[in-house]
Amino acid sequence: MQRQFTGLNQWRRMVGTGLLASVALASAGCLAGTVPVPVQPGANSLPSGNLRAREDLALYQLVMVRNAEQAHFAIQGTYATVPELVKVGLINDTMQGGRSYTVDVTVLDGGMRFVAMAVPVEYGPTGRTSFYMDETGVIRGADHEGGAPRPDDPVIQTP
Q1: Is 117 found in the same domain as 84?
Q2: Three-class DSSP category at 101
Q3: Under a CB-based contact definition with an 8 Å cutoff, are residues 130 and 147 in contact?
């Protein structure tokens, strides 16, 4: 009986070590550095026909802006422009130029409100949906043929 118990303990140690190694390998990339990830990674390498992926990247960009704005508001008591968010290290400066979408953040009411808009750089090839977000964090969007989104556009489910 003692021998079976020892074998069971050895088996548990081997499984536990294997699980620990798997978790360590899986999380290694998450802990690799402290440099913020790019706001819209990989957009330049997408095939031109991959419209949905480009729109998803714009959504992720707005989610990252939302998170950065919430952090800035919690620390400073105000919302901030993109250059201010970059300056304090809450986002990288990869939102400007050469991307599928142009993202603009406007701060209103002395920093108590903000509006972020993401519009396709070139309507059609880079995207069709224009996205709108304010300090509530709700993202809205619709096809405005490359025009600006509106605050009454339908709510978009974010990943």
Answers
A1: yes
A2: strand
A3: yes
